Every structure is written in C-alpha cells, then in structure tokens.
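Researcher: Here's a chain I'd like modeled. Treat it as a single chain, no partners, no ligands.
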Amino acid sequence: MSKHNTYNTSDGVLSDPTGAVVVKPCTAAEISFYESVASSHPDLTPHLPTYMGQLTLSAADKAAEEVESGTILTTDGTVERLHGKKLATELHIVLENITNGFKKPNVLDLKLGAQLWDENSKPEKRARLDAVSAQTTSGSLGFRIAGMRTFKGTDAPDVPSNLKEFVEQDKEGGYWVFNKMYGRKFSAKDINDGFVHYIFPGSKTQPELERAREVLAFFLGEVKDIIEVFEEKESRMYSASLLLVYEGDVDEYAKTKQILRGQHPEDEEEEEDEDNLPKLAAVKMIDFAHATWQPGQGPDENALKGMRSTATILKGLLDKTEKEVHEADE
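Model: Modeled as a single isolated chain. Structure tokens:
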C-alpha cells in the first residue's frame, strides 16, 4: 500500500479524513502475524481489526519519529495512549479504527498474560516485566487493566482525590482517561471495581442499567467466541490485548439501537450507509508485536488464562446487573 496525501497525522498516528483507518508504527513481526491471519487463519479475522496493508514512511516524515505504540485514535480526532512505548520506526501498519462509528467511545484495554516477555527479551527486561506481573493481576488473573477511557459528560464533577494520580480529566470533551498505573493498583480481590468504573461511568439510572446489561452480554459472548477460536490455535502472543468498546453517550446509545433496528428517528432524513452505521459495542484482539505461531506447542495458555478470567468477571457483573434491572422494574 502506498502513502497518500489524504492521510493526516496526530501525535505520530496517521488516519484518513473519515477516521475509519489507523496507520500506526509497528514491528515486522506484527505485520507478519496479520498477514498470516489473512492467509491461513480466516476464523480469527472477525476478532481482529481489519488489516489493510502496510506503509513505509521516509525518515524525513515527522510521523515516523518517536511515535507511540498502544495508541487509540478516537473519532473526535484525539489520540489516547492507553499503554505502550515510543517506537522510532519507518514501518507502519494500516488497520481499521475500532472506535470509528462511536460518538463517545468508552474504551477498556486489557493486557493479556502472566508472562509479558517473549523469548528474544533480554534478562533485565524479563526481570522488570516479571516484577510487574507478580505485583498486579497479570500474575494472578492473567490480565491487567492497561488503560481506560470513559465518557462522563461535560458537567461531570472533578476527579476525586483518591483517583487524581490515575486520571486525567478532559472537561471539554467530558472524558476521564485512566493511565496504566490505575490498573496496577488492583488485586484479584478488587479488580471488579475497575470493571464497574468502566461499565457504569455515571449513576445507575434505568437507561444505564439496561445499557450495561446489553453491553455486558455482548462482551461476554464475544470474549467466549475469541477463547473458543484461540483454544484451537498454536500461537504465542506476549503483551497482546483485548480491547472493549461501547457507546458512552446514553442518548446516542438509544438512538443507535433504533437505527440498527431500522427504526430511524423522525428527524433522520437519509438512510444510513450500511458501511458507516453507528455502533453499540465492539471487542477486538490487538497488539501483536510479539505474536508468533508455534506448531506443535499447543494453545497459548498464557493468553487464554487472561481471556477466561475476563469472561468470569463479565459473567459475574452481568448476573448482578440483570438482578438490578429486575429489581428496578418491580
């Protein structure tokens, strides 16, 4: 794929004018993984961002200098670094922007695995990442919250003092952006609090309870599907992530449900382009810089442990939310 002038840059991440495509720095291993999925593992493609090719940017291009991995380009034109490190590379991968189609995307990034390093890592890196794993839910549950972004509304109160070291508040946009240290503070006993903060960024009104029930049911189904596929794969994916997204604006969520059901609001004058329909929720696997196929080695239990723990937590929250919805209806 060749570079076109129709792309614009923001903080090192390129996108097309519609926001539908992300062009991000990557490793050759990540490109190889996506290409192997496209050619040999079609059952994985629904669970990954759509792969559209690669770009090699010249050294003169500022977008290639000290750019970041682990970024999420949102549809309002902002770039959030949920986790990752800076990469100095000319190699870029072209992917579907997962947050495209959402008005106010709420994003949760779950880094998978108790072992976070691959076999090529130096001893000092292994030691550092092993320490992170041992001190966080990476070790106990096989995943940790690596970043989170929730829409609170422009009239949201200030971040409480106990969260100020973890949250950057965007008052104009109405978002709270949780840094990577937020997820590191949890243990297996209180990790549910992080998920609750994500699923219920506002008060538990009836519309928010209904949305939470629907989103949790969708998330659980998608994660189970991903587990089923990867249980049949002989892969190793170190520091890959599960990315969960849902529509953060409650009113927009309700409007989108009408559109997807074919019940357009009265003020909707034109039919929606089927390729540009709004979205309610999405779950994708991302970040394959350290992903390989390992024939004969069996499934990747390191990553699967985190997926299964995620499914268990989602199921518990879904059961509790369904009970709350039922009680609110009585």
